[in-house]
Design goal:
ABC transporter ATP-binding protein; 10 helices; binds adenosine-5'-triphosphate; alpha/beta; transport; ATP binding; single chain
Length: 294
């Protein structure tokens, strides 16, 4: 990985009149990374991304993409692919024409047939955009964003509206782009996708980073959990298990393996059946839920 960041944001502020949407935000995205910008509703993700994509001027602060001002479209746009939340295709164009048109605007080269294959739209090549389903439109969005394997790809909620198979196909395509060296910036409300794929995550809340780092850096600040139920006739389980009512118990622990051992030994010694046993490390969902509590 080169040490020069692909994206360099320094003390970015975005204001809408009196409303301060993004507050002194700084982050970098390194070459080859998959960086996920996540956050609560209204956190400022879109405002930040629109600035980085060159669609919106910063109120203050500096944003550099490939070392340039992203509004310098002539130098930045040909190296960038953008999949927005809502596509702007002309409904009268066919799928093939849409890919060709958007591809041409980027001044990159690619084969339309190859892209149709990547997104599984070969059989819809001559269908008008107005006749596509929501999921098919989303796949067309992706095809145009990755036309010519751009160095930097923005994926804004890329899998919303896609069925499981199409999601898996899209992520396989992203994996191949990354093998070819592309850098990816992702926003999504599907946290498990970010948890599985992101090298680093910027978790926004009310215009600032609540946390930033790798998944393990984000999740290790919260304890792992063990959940189980006991029949009403069972004895009290050992601490640190806490009753949650109706025979359900919760253990929050920084030492998952040790406390699980203690619990299983206790259950065996007392000949008790642990029902609905679930044990696992902290997930990104838990970090999200904790935002409001801190
Ligand atoms: N054009 C605008 N004028 C005034 N306020 C705006 C404008 N655009 C966004 N905002 C406000 O700025 C805040 C951040 O909005 P933004 O769209 O960046 O958030 P987000 O993190 O993308 O949210 P979501 O996950 O809900 O899409 C919100 O409170 C929003 O209401």
């Amino acid at each position: 990985m080169s040490s020069t960041p692909v994206i360099d944001v320094e003390r970015l502020n975005v204001r809408y009149g009196d409303f301060h949407a993004v507050k002194d935000l700084s982050f970098q995205v390194r070459r080859g990374e998959l960086y996920a910008l996540l956050g609560t509703n209204g956190a400022g993700k879109t405002s930040t991304l629109e600035t980085v994509e060159g669609h919106r001027p910063a109120t203050s602060g500096t944003v550099r993409v490939f070392g340039r001002d992203p509004r310098d479209r002539g130098s930045v746009r040909p190296r960038t692919g953008i999949m927005l939340q809502e596509s702007g295709f002309s409904p009268d164009l066919t799928v093939r024409e849409s890919i060709r048109l958007v591809g041409g605007l980027t001044r990159r080269t690619d084969r339309v047939e190859r892209l149709l294959g990547v997104v599984g739209l070969e059989h819809k090549a001559d269908t008008r955009v107005s006749r596509l389903s929501g999921g098919e439109k989303r796949r067309l969005d992706f095809a145009t964003a990755v036309y010519g394997t751009p160095e930097l790809i923005f994926l804004d909620e890329p899998t919303t509206g896609l069925d499981i198979q199409s999601r898996d196909d899209l992520w396989d395509a992203v994996d191949r782009l990354r093998e070819d060296g592309s850098t990816v910036v992702l926003t999504t409300h599907y946290l498990e996708e970010a948890q599985q794929r992101a090298d680093r995550i910027g978790l926004m809340h009310q215009g600032v980073f609540h946390r930033e780092g790798t998944v393990s850096e984000l999740t290790r600040t919260l304890p792992a959990t063990i959940r189980f139920s006991l029949p009403l006739s069972a004895p009290e389980p050992p601490p640190p298990a806490v009753g949650e009512g109706e025979g359900r118990f919760l253990i929050e622990t920084p030492g998952l393996q040790k406390d699980l051992h203690v619990l299983l030994d206790w259950a065996r010694d007392h000949a008790v059946e642990l029902r609905d046993l679930q044990a696992g490390p902290t997930r990104l969902d838990d970090v999200f839920r904790a935002i409001g509590e801190e």
